[in-house]
Every structure is written in structure tokens, then in C-alpha cells.
Amino acid sequence: MTVPNTAASTAARRGANEVPGCHGGLENLDEEHAYWLDDIDGEVPRDLTGTFYRNGPGRQRIGQSQYGHWFDGDGMLCAFSFLDGRVHFRNRYVRTPKYVEETAAQRVLYRGFGTQVPGGFWKNFLKMPANPANTSTVWHGGHLLALNEGGKPWKLDPADLSTIGEYTYDGGLQRADVFSAHGKVHAASGDYINFGAGIGGFGLSGPKPCLTIYRIRPDGRLAERKQVPIATFPFCHDFALTDRYALFFIGSIVFGNMVPVIFGTRSISDQITFDPSIPMKVLVVDLKTLELVKTFETSPGAMIHFGNSWEEGDEIVIDGMFTDNFEANQTLIDVFNPSGKFGGGSYMRYRLNRATGALSAEKVTATESEFPTFNSAWTGQRNEVTYTACSVKNGADSFFNAIQRITQGGDAQVLELPKGLYGSEPLFAPRAGATEEGDGYVLEVVYDAWSHRSELQIYRAATMAHEATLKLRHHIPHQFHGHFTPSVFMH
Ligand SMILES: [Fe+2]
Prior knowledge:
6% of the residues lie in helices and 42% in strands. It has 491 residues and is mainly β.
């Protein structure tokens, strides 16, 4: 599909005093940059040292075509390196076969989650969707990885973001294995726990769905993997982690008939639906054995992203973003449609009682939210504060336009961005040497639709007081997830 460049019309809207929408922030950033940020409002804290990585689709168009889904844009990592009160920026695409070959050809060559290759039946017949390596990133065990749940990780150089190659943990990830974008580091052991939703074998009734759970030691070794059989192929994007358990919500967003996908006549996105007759199941997996130990059931719905999770006596508490539909998929299929709205879900807290089997759920805040984050050193332990990207009605609410800081007591502080500025996943970065949960900063990349440039905003986490805004020389296309490490890798 060919559509006009939305950023190009920003100036016209500004002339008409119309608040520009978020869609210009999805235009390509084809160029790769590396420079010190010098357009600064405020002061960069000198006790903030480390690297803030982010990942997301850097382009939605190739040649004259637009990809068929936001999820199919090629992964582009950004690195903000903090050192002695200065910040260096770099962005670089992951050199997957899809990126390399489509860049050379300037046209769509690979199928995606929602993209079909133009040219008819044979172009898609029995072709697997490509892995765009575009969803998240992690630095663990000496490896910087670009992650997408449809494939294996891609390993990058942490300093210059050059691509090293697809990464299998020395063969620990096998041929058909996939690896989610939402692995978590266990606070006490330092293990990186991740999973992949896929096929665990074939039976008389066809392929058997399963979750494969992986344990990666702090030295970067994939030490254990185990399959947990499940009844249906789930849309399972994220999970929650306590000290002793991994929690998987198998919800009401389901894959329909996959035969047309295999034969190439329809995309995966075409075959995903929300089925309100399917209750949501919660699978409790013991981290010691990687075995399923209990299953809970609750009302229909789906959890896309999780906040923290922890244990209180017999109870497991799980924070996450709940949705009761999958209408957002229509927006994601046609990202430049000016009427499309990128929304969030409801911030919910579930309590599962392992002894009685009881399950309860309560809404934590009323504001539409997504991308819940917290100080990741508190993963699996009761934390005090969660941050979210949220949408408030202000006449420019087509994307996330506010940051929310929510305490355990339910106090929600909403920090609204000026109209025409659109936010992203806020991420906590600890102050150098910090030992308290809230001792650090909140980092957020914001797209300024007025100038079609992005900026990095820094807030003091305890108060959300503004510390600094650093303007980039260009925009960064709206991204998904990031990761902060106190290490600095600049050569
Ligand atoms: Fe995600």
C-alpha cells in the first residue's frame, strides 16, 4: 500500500493551528547516526551512568510500499550512553536477512506478522514470516540481544550496535525454537528467565502447542530448557516472575485456523481474533523444576504486558495491563491512517491464592495505560512504584501522551506532555551506587510532532521533577521496549 508521508504535512497543520497527530512519528528513520547530544534544556545528572538501549521498528515503508503491520518494521536499536553528565546517541538497524535484502531491493521480499509479499500465491506459499528483531533488547551474560518473539535473538556489539549475528546460546536454542522479547532477570539468582510459544511436537491431531521455558545463567550459559504443554496456540507475549514462580496468562486472543497462513493466502494477523467465550487461564510454573504446578481460571480477556509480581504468604500478586478486545490490531495494520488510535489497557492487579485456589482482580488506576515498568532490581519482590505510558484526553490523544507514576497505595501521579508531543515506555535508571528502590531517574523518549524531532526526557523518579530534555537532530520512530544497564560501552 502506498500512502503520503504524514510528517511532510506537519508544517501545513501547524499553519492551520491544528495539533499534529502521532502518525509522523512512524515515518522511517533510514539514516544511522552517532553524535553527542548538545541541545539540552536543564542539566543531565552526573550520577546517572550507563546505557539506555531501545528497540523498535525503524521503518514502516520500503520503496513504494508500506508494511502490512507495525510489528513488521525492521528492528533499529538506539543507545543513549550517559557519562559524566553528557549523553551520546547512536542508532543502527539490525542486519537481519530481511533488512539487508529489502534495503538492497527497495521492496517487500519477506512475509511478516501482517505483511504478505506482493506478487501472488507462490510468493507466500509455505514461506515463514521473517524475524524483524524489532521488539526489545537486553544486556545479560555479556550479550546485547535484539529480541522478537517470532524468532531467535540477534546479537549486537554493545558499543557500536553493529550486528554480530543470530544468536542461539551455543546451540541451546534449537532449530524450531523461538524466544520472547520479555525475558526477565531473576533478582536473587541473576538468571535470565525467558520463554517461547511454539510447537512441542506432533500428534494424531496435528502440532502440539507448548511454552518452552529457558534458564540462562548470569555467565550467559543456557543451562536449562523445559516444555510446558498447553491446550491451544496462545498469543502469549509476556509473563510475570516472582521469586519462585513464572506466571503465564493464556487469554482470549487466539490464533484461528493457521492452514491459510501456512499456504500463504492469509497473514498471521488476519487469523488472530478475540474470542469472548474463552476464559483466561493463569499457568503457575515452578522456577526450580520448570514444571506447571497450578492453573487458575478467570473471566475472558488478555494481558499484553506485565508489571511486577511477588508473593505474599499463599498469595501471588501480579500487575499487568488487561484488555477485553483486540481492536487495536486494526490500528497496527494501517499505522498511517490518521483516524487510528494507539491506545492502552487497564492496569489490573491479580491475586492468586495457591492454598485455596481463589483468584481476585482489581483495577489499580483508571487511566488507560501500557508499558508498565519499575526498578527491575525489584523483579519478583514487592515494589513500591510502577511507571506507565498512558493516554489522557487532551485533544491530541492518538498515542501515549502522559507518564504515570503509581504507588502501591494507589496514588497515581499523571504527568501530561504538551499537546502534539507523544511518549513511549518510561524506564527507570538507578542513580550510580543507589540501594533504594526509588533512587534514580525515569527516562522517556518523546516524539515532538511539531518539529518532527524526538527528545530524551529525564525525570527524578522520586518526585517526577524534570531534570533535563535533550533534543535529537531527527525523530526516532515510535518504539516498543528498552533496557538500561549501568555499563558504558563506548570505545
Ligand atoms: Fe511487548
